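User: Hi! I have a protein structure encoded as tokens and I'd like to know what sequence might fold into it. I'm fairly new to this, so please keep things simple.
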């Protein structure tokens, strides 16, 4: 192919690349591949021509863009956990409080119901679990259920189940937040009844020192997942200045990011429940794990977002 014909065939494409740069990684890569193919052809057939020097310069410019984009992608991961996610938590603090209050009220109802109705615990937890726990209490190992399963399989099952619960709490928010409220209420009642069951048998402290080793992270994450569901549900109920569909899209995106941010929390909770809760630890060590988990939740989800927002406001 003559040089003039080669230039004429590809001029529009090169002009588009030069005058309308893109930041989309896939588009940028596709353009770069095409451009390097053209450069390779030009170097083979027109090694000393102006078009070859032009393509070489344009390819070098695109290469710099690709490298910059890769650095931004690596920084994007860090920015998500250190800035973007805490900012979303700050914006959702009001709904986080609502989620926590709903869960707390449900726990109280579950506690009172279990203390006033002997059949309530069986209704909520099931006969099989109650009978097994009563048998373990007779054996002197009331929380022996945690030591029965294989640790690795238990870890994967618990982690996947907890992540599933959080996503259901989020997705249920699509029904104007009603589904999320129901899930929060059910889980809260179940926790309250569970703790009342041990309280009636004088085992509340023992259960606290065992269960809350993993429960601090697990229950906190469920409450936060409820906040994500309420965020999406409220975006439908209260669109503000946006159209209802635009508001829903924004709320769903914000809520989904919150739920994704909970995955590491559930993984750690699953690890603690599978490998640590089953151990007989000194009370001081159990309290240390529980306190550290609670301090992390309070700092990362409440205090750090407030601090980050104050810094942002001061810099504006």
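Assistant: Happy to help. Inverse folding works backwards from shape to sequence: for each of the 316 positions I chose a residue that suits the local structure. Here it is:
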């Amino acid at each position: 192919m003559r040089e003039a014909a080669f230039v004429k065939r590809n001029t529009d494409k090169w002009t588009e690349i030069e005058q309308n740069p893109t930041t989309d990684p896939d588009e940028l890569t596709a353009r770069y591949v095409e451009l390097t193919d053209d450069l390779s052809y030009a170097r083979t057939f027109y090694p000393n021509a102006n078009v070859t020097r032009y393509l070489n310069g344009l390819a070098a410019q695109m290469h710099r863009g690709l490298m910059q984009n890769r650095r931004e992608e690596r920084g994007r991961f860090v920015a998500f956990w250190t800035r973007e996610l805490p900012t979303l938590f700050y914006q959702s603090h009001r709904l986080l409080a609502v989620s926590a209050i709903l869960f707390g009220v449900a726990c109280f109802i579950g506690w009172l119901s279990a203390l006033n109705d002997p059949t309530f615990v069986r209704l909520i937890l099931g006969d099989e679990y109650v009978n097994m726990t009563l048998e373990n209490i007779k054996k002197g190992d009331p929380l022996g259920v945690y030591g029965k399963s294989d640790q690795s399989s238990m870890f994967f099952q618990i982690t996947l189940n907890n992540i599933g619960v959080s996503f259901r709490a989020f997705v249920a928010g699509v029904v104007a937040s009603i589904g999320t409220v129901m899930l929060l209420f059910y889980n809260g009642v179940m926790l309250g009844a569970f703790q009342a069951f041990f309280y009636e048998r004088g085992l509340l402290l023992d259960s606290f020192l065992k269960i809350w080793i993993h429960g601090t992270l697990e229950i906190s994450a469920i409450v936060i997942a409820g906040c994500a569901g309420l965020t999406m549900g409220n975006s439908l109920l209260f669109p503000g200045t946006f159209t209802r569909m635009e508001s829903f899209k924004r709320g769903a995106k914000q809520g989904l990011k919150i739920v994704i941010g909970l995955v590491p929390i559930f993984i750690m909770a699953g690890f603690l429940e599978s490998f640590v809760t089953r151990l007989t630890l000194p009370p001081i060590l159990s309290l240390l794990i529980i306190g550290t988990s609670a301090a992390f939740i309070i700092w990362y989800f409440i205090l750090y977002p407030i601090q980050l927002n104050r810094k942002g406001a001061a810099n504006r």
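A useful reference point when you look it over: The chain has two domains: 3-79, 92-315. Feel free to ask if any position seems puzzling.
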